[in-house]
Design brief:
This protein is an alpha+beta fold and 583 residues long. The protein has 17 helices and 18 strands. Helices cover 38% and strands 21% of the residues. About 2% of the residues have low confidence. Bound molecules: serine. The site of serine has 10 residues, from β8 and β9.
């Protein structure tokens, strides 16, 4: 099948069912300050879920350009992409669960459409919570189409979907495809990653306010999102989208340029192909941005420079990003004509960025090697030097460090960065969303939530727990800590409850400058392996937590909102990783 065929089929099927085809919105929303890039097909439609009338009617379908940097570290695996397409069909009060499930089922299994074997499909439905009952209705609708109960799992958090901390939301039912070789097991295990999520149908009936209260939306809506790359890969019977027509020409081009084989350099080639594709769509968009050190431009810069570094690791000589862009454009330009129209700009901007970075990359790498040889931690000052003089985004230094099993002192780096911004006064209104000194409201709330989580883990699970790393974006927090087994779901819930209990108390958050010794005597938490200076800044959350940190934080825990753990998994031997959001 040609990739375009899947798109055409999807649009045609839903058009036949009374939907109007609408164009993909821009990848870069100009009227929505809450996000840097469109992360889901429903995002541009949010006002219509809240009750506004859509000019094209109550049943819509499209393919939407999306970009998510939340799963940055997963890029290179079989199922994640930074940039991706989401196929979506929507009901603005027109149909609900029963019809939505019937249409998804027909599209996936009918001979005329995708003709996927029912035997390879499985489904999750919402298991319910204190306010919303378990979605027995959705389970029964799947059963009415011949799905076995054994292939339906009732799941918690993952099956309640909301785009942001407030706004339209609801329970969902997710559709999974068995990607393994041979027969799928009779019983569905939602934790087994061989089952790949391909489609998410959200029953958007609620609106969430900033206190986390749910109220009914004016109508019961449906928002669905089908992962285009994953579904196409499934249909083609491949392991990963990189091994389909969506990426093969680019991978082949990289093989040629590097004189290496994909089989031996999968990770590098996948990251390059993924990041260049994302850059092509950002630069080719009507609301395009160019590489810079702030906001969207910083994310773009990070993507391009990471691709360049991987290219150099493969031994590619001379510049190559513009060539890879040309190949990428050819794959998609019949579906997205803006790529052809803006081809010159895409190529030139990539070339400019590559020329700039080529001047410093090698020297910077040599500098990094010297720093890494000196200590187990790259100091904040050194990381800042790499940023300032060699153009290394912090995340690149962190990745380099990780490859050598050492860490980067992020706290001091950020202090250095902020200090420098103050000196040069180029802070452009203090806006660094998604960038370095990302002081967006979301990030600040998540930052304080991270301190509470750190303390709650010690109080609820084990007093020996210590932070091993953390990373915060406006969308979520990620926290690594030492612990040698998976947390039970009861423990996860208890930690979550503990954090929410403290948030509700409305504790004040205060910063103090202390000498390192004083802070240590007070028992302030510090990150394992990080070297601190003589004077340190310590943040106190009431009398609940004290922690070495450069900030910034909320003034009162009440500002955080509702805290929710969305994932708990292994990160390295003896290290667990939690991802959490605030709503
Ligand atoms: N909004 C949901 C998602 O992103 C379904 O479209 O998964």
């Amino acid at each position: 099948m040609h990739p375009k065929e899947l798109i055409t089929k999807y649009l045609q099927f839903f058009e036949k069912k009374g939907h109007t085809i609408i164009p993909s919105a821009s990848l870069i929303p100009l009227n929505d300050a809450s996000v840097l890039f469109n992360t889901a097909g429903m995002q541009p439609l949010a006002p219509y879920f809240l009750g506004e009338k859509h000019p094209e009617g109550p049943q819509l379908v499209n393919i939407q350009k999306c970009l998510r940097t939340v799963d940055f570290e997963n890029i290179g695996d079989n199922t994640h992409n930074t940039f991706f397409f989401m196929l979506g069909n929507w009901s603005l009060g027109a149909y609900f669960k029963k019809d939505s499930i019937a249409m998804s089922f027909e599209f996936l299994t009918s001979k005329k459409w995708l003709n996927l074997p029912l035997d390879k499909l499985a489904f999750t439905v919402y298991k319910g919570d204190a306010k919303i009952e378990a979605d027995e209705a959705a389970a029964r609708y799947w059963e009415s189409h011949g799905v076995s109960r054994k292939r339906i799992a009732f799941v918690g958090k993952d099956n309640f979907w909301s785009a942001g901390e407030t706004g339209p939301c609801g329970p969902s039912t997710e559709i999974f495809y068995w990607s393994g070789k041979g027969d799928a097991p009779a019983e569905f295990d939602a934790e087994d990653e061989t089952w790949v999520e391909i489609w998410n149908n959200v029953f958007m009936a609620y609106n969430k306010d900033s206190d986390g209260n749910l109220s009914n939306l004016p109508a019961k809506n449906v928002d669905t999102g089908m992962g285009f790359e994953r579904t196409f890969t499934t249909i083609m019977g491949k392991e990963s989208a990189y091994e389909t027509a969506l990426f093969i020409p680019v991978i082949e081009k990289i093989e040629k340029l590097s004189h290496k084989k994909y089989e031996e350099s999968k990770k590098e080639m996948r990251i390059m192909a993924d990041h260049i594709r994302a850059a092509v769509f950002v630069l080719g968009d009507a609301n395009y941005v160019v590489p810079s050190n702030v906001d969207r431009g910083y994310i773009l810069r990070r993507l391009i420079r990471r691709a360049i570094r991987y290219g150099k690791m493969l031994g590619i000589e001379g510049s190559f990003t513009s060539q890879l862009a040309t190949t990428t454009i050819k794959i998609y330009d019949d579906i997205f004509p803006e790529l052809q129209e803006n081809k010159k700009r895409i190529q030139e901007e990539l070339q400019k960025e590559e020329t700039k970075f080529a001047l410093t990359l090698e020297k910077g790498l040599r500098e990094f090697e010297k720093m890494a040889a000196r200590a187990d931690v790259i100091s904040g000052k050194d990381a800042f030097l790499l940023f300032q003089s060699y153009g290394f985004p912090l995340e690149m230094t962190q990745e380099l460090a990780l490859e050598q099993n050492i860490t980067v002192d992020e706290v001091i780096f950020k202090e250095e960065y902020t200090k420098h911004q103050k000196l040069s006064r180029t802070a452009a209104g203090g806006k660094f969303k998604g960038g370095l000194a990302d002081n967006s409201e979301e990030t600040v709330r998540l930052h304080t939530a991270t301190h509470l989580l750190n303390e709650a883990l010690r109080r609820v699970v084990s007093k020996d727990i210590q932070q091993r790393g953390s990373n915060i974006t406006p969308e979520r927090l990620r926290f690594d800590f030492n612990f040698d087994r998976k947390l039970t779901s009861e423990e996860v819930k208890a930690v979550e409850d503990e954090v929410n209990r403290v948030i509700k108390k409305g504790l004040p958050v205060k910063r103090e400058e202390l000498s390192f010794e004083e802070a240590k005597l007070l028992g302030a938490q510090m990150e394992f392996g990080v070297k601190y200076g003589e004077k340190v800044s310590v943040y106190f959350v009431g009398d609940y937590s004290k922690e070495f940190c450069g900030g910034p934080h909320v003034k009162n825990t009440k500002e955080i909102g509702k805290f929710k753990i969305v994932k708990e998994k292994s990160s390295a031997a003896g290290v667990r990783r939690i991802k959490a959001v605030v709503q």
